[in-house]
Structure formats: C-alpha cells, structure tokens
Design brief:
The protein is α+β, with helices and mostly antiparallel strands. The protein has ten helices and 23 strands.
Length: 489
C-alpha cells in the first residue's frame, strides 16, 4: 500500500526479514511484543499448579546502528537506530522525540503488522537531521511518533568468532542491548546503503556498509537453550469457599436507621386521591426545616435564561410550550398575590434552565443554595433502594417466555406532592419579558430531587401491594420481576 505523508489516516505494514529459527516474529509494525511463551491454562477448572516452559533456539542479529541526530540546541545526540526494509514508514519513539525536543506536526496513521495485527496509531510526525561519523553525509528523515518501537535490541551479543572477523571494520553497530529510538523504513533504508558487503570465510554475508559505517547482517547469535519451570500452588482452603459463595442465595440486608425512618415516613404520610393518584410528602432530614432567601437568586438566574431566550427565538418557543404544557397538565400552578411572601422561610425557589437532548427539557436546579448555603437536596433523605436483587432478577428472567421493556411516561410527575410541601418547589416564570414576574409552585415530584427515584419506585411498589388481592399476578410481577434501570424524567 502506498502511504502519502499528508494522509490523515492510513495503514502501514511492517514485516522484518529477520526471523528466528524458533519464533517467526518480525518488528510487527515496529511495536514491541513480549518475547515469552505463555502457559496454557484451563478455564473450566481451577488449576493447583501452573507450569511455564520456555525454549529458545538460535537467532539472527537485526541490523542496528548508532547515529548522531541534531536536537533543538543544535547539538548532536547519539541515538540507537534499527533498519527495517519491510516497514513502509520510518518511526521515532516518544521517549526519543522528547529527548531531542524536535518540532512536531499532527499525524494519525494506523499501524499494522504480520497477520494484519493492529499495533497503534501514530500521534505526530517530525523531521530529523542526522550526521554520519565516518563521512560527510547529513541526511534528513521524516519520521512518525509511536509510544514505543520495539523491545531492547540486540537481545544477545554477537558471538566471539564473528567479532574477530569484524574487528578491523568501522562499525556503526552497537553490540550491547539498548532501547530502539528510531526505526528507518523502506523510504530511507536503501538511501543509506552503499552496497559494499563483507563476507565470512564461507562466503556468507555478515556485514554491510552504510553511510554511518558498517552494520551486521545475517549474523547468527549463539543462544543457549533455556528451559524454565515456574510452579504456583493454590490455597485450596481459600479457593473452594468461593464456589459456595457464588451459589449461596443472598438475603436483603436490613435497612439502617435512616432508611427505616424514610420507609416509616412514607407509610405514615402517603395518601391516595379519589382519581387514583398517589400523594406523598418530601422526606426531610429534620422537621420544621427553614431556608434563607432564595427568591432573589432564582430571579437573577431566570433573568439570565430570559436573555438567552431573547437571542434564540426557537429556544424561547420550545421553552414556552414546555411550561404551558406543564401548567395545562396541572403539574404546576400560579400562586396568588397573597400566597407570595418574599421572606417566607418555609418556601424554596428553584432556578430552572433548558437542556436540549435533542428534545427540550426544563431542568429545575435542586442544588441551588439559599443565602445560608443550604440546598433543598441537602435537607432531603435519598431513601433506600427498593429494587430487587439483580442476581435474583436475572435468574427469574430466564423462567419467562416473554419479557417487556417499556417506558413509564412522566414517571415522577405521576406522583403528587402533599399541599404542605409544595411551597418547597416554587419557581419564577413569565412568557413575555414585558410582563410582571409570576410565581408558581410545582405540584408533583420533580426530577432532580435526591428522593425522587425512591418515591417513584416506592409508589409503584405500593400500587402493587394495594391491588395485590384483586390483581395477584400483576402485583407479583411488579414486586418480584420488575426493574427500573434508568430512573429519568
């Protein structure tokens, strides 16, 4: 595949010609891979012993060199370079690029290797200015930045007989294992070779001349065969009880004192209207709660929202439609003039603002604080979780032939708030900025309050209990096989 350096996202394939006798592995797009043989373990049973065996044979040396590269201070720094004629592009490691401090430009190229294994995506590209130690050549190379190119190379030293044959040559190669900072691909490799090869006594090529000196090629490194065994014993006394714990049925934990109070409060205060609607009180942490002034802050917030509406006529139209529908449904009502007391400590005015996702919703800010720094949510109990145990629910899920997934429309707003608590849900609103500011109270449970999820699910549970005798099958489904996974407006 031809890769243009200006391409935003492309594919680069690398397959090094150096293949060891025991492990056919190349640079794999020049990203390191662990050079070990992993043990095969059985996933179906818990093993008591784990054994790992690693056998290594002979390998061939990859062509590497030490090259001087110019940094941002115009000084030359020696970097380790790997030559890979099977890589379409040239690369530099993140660590080496930072050490040189060279300027970068954005570049995102997907890199893959043998068997189309996806390695990673380059993050930047930069230009390197190199200098030869043995000639006047100063090539400049365009490279792409990867987090890491490969593991330390060479993994073993050149054997002694070969080093004796090469001792009189001007080498650019490094014989000690070192992290690779730069990889020169096919776009650069053939430019730096001078094609003067060095052969051993048998006629085999062992080194090649490049503009930076000589590099070792096709040299076999002698590696002793290594067999290692690692044994891990398993503590059966700790492992076996885990099976019992998985199979053990979990019993619901008893409610703590706070949640007992919330449950008791619900049972004592909830009521039902003649039309079937449930009426609840807000579970305050303390009785007779008093708030500081919230009207002034709520008014300032509303003025900001109103200015936003004046700049966006479509938003203003949607906002008005939402609030008018809220009123038509009876979910909020306008307060009379004698009901509005600015300094009333037993009321709470909430700011509101629009959220488009993609349909417009008006969000009432329950975290808004009064002049004393107290928010409405901070004075309310969250309530216990009334959802059934998820593990039990999943087991019963398999017993049914049909499963229903549905949405309860306006779930929170199907529940009404008691008259004596509605003053804690006041807002300011008007359709036209030329009109006088109006004051409203929200009559139903409002999303955003900390107790809203508990009240909605608890009322649903209470509905099942109230009609358990008349509709036993439906009540059983609600109480045992019902789960609300997204309690939202």
């Amino acid at each position: 595949m031809q890769v243009d350096s200006s391409t935003t996202i492309a594919s680069s394939t690398s397959a090094s010609a150096a293949i060891s006798s025991g492990k056919p592995w190349s640079t794999v797009a020049n990203v390191s891979r662990p050079d070990i043989l992993y043990p095969t373990t059985c996933l179906e049973t818990l093993p008591t012993v784990t054994t790992l065996t690693c056998h290594q044979g002979s390998r061939y040396m990859l062509p590497t060199a030490l090259v001087d590269v110019r940094n941002t201070q115009n000084r030359y720094v020696t970097c380790s370079v790997l030559l890979d004629s099977a890589s379409e592009l040239s690369y530099i490691s993140e660590r080496c690029a930072r050490a040189l401090g060279v300027p970068r430009s954005p570049s995102r190229i997907a890199v893959s290797g043998i068997s189309s294994v996806k390695a990673e995506t380059t993050c930047d590209c930069c230009t390197l200015y190199m200098k030869s130690k043995v000639s006047q050549d100063t090539p400049d190379v365009s490279v792409h930045v990867l987090s890491k190119i490969t593991s330390a190379i060479p993994t073993s030293q050149i054997n002694t007989p070969t080093m004796e044959q090469l001792k009189d040559l001007n080498f650019a190669v490094f014989n000690a294992s070192s992290p690779i900072g730069i990889l020169l691909g096919v776009d650069q490799v053939w430019k730096i070779f001078t094609f003067n090869n060095i052969f051993d006594s048998s006629g085999n090529p062992i080194a090649a001349s490049i503009i930076f000196g000589c590099v070792v090629t096709s040299v076999q490194a002698s590696i002793d065969n290594v067999v290692s065994a690692f044994v891990t014993t398993i503590d059966i006394d700790r492992s076996l009880p885990k099976f019992w714990q998985i199979e053990k049925a979990l019993h619901p934990l008893p409610l703590d004192a706070k949640n007992v109070h919330v449950e008791t409060h619900f049972l004592e205060t909830h009521a039902r209207h003649s039309d079937g609607k449930y009426i609840v009180e807000l579970p305050f942490r303390e009785k007779g709660i008093k708030f500081g002034n919230t009207l002034q802050g709520a008014t300032l917030r509303f003025n900001a929202v109103e200015r936003r509406q004046l700049r966006d006529s479509h938003l203003r139209k949607q906002y008005i439609e939402f609030m008018n529908k809220y009123t038509r449904l009876g979910h909020m009502r306008e307060l009379k003039s004698d009901e509005v007391v600015a300094s009333d400590s037993h009321s709470f005015y909430m700011p509101h603002h629009p959220i488009i996702k993609p349909k417009l919703h008006v969000v009432f800010v329950r975290l808004f604080q009064d002049t004393s720094g107290v928010s409405l949510n901070s004075t309310l109990h969250t309530g216990p979780s009334t959802q059934p145990n998820l593990f039990d629910l999943c087991l019963r899920f398999c017993l049914h032939k049909y499963i229903f997934s549905a949405d309860i429309v306006k779930m929170f707003r199907q529940i009404w708030v008691s008259e004596n608590h509605r003053n804690y849900q006041r807002i300011v609103w008007r359709e036209d900025s030329s009109e006088k500011l109006k004051y409203f109270i929200l009559c139903t449970v409002t999303y955003g309050t900390s107790c809203a999820p508990f009240l909605s699910v608890r009322v649903l549970e209470q509905l099942a209990k109230d009609h358990q005798r008349r509709y036993p099958l439906a009540a059983k489904i609600i109480l045992e096989d019902f789960c609300v996974d997204d309690v939202s407006p």
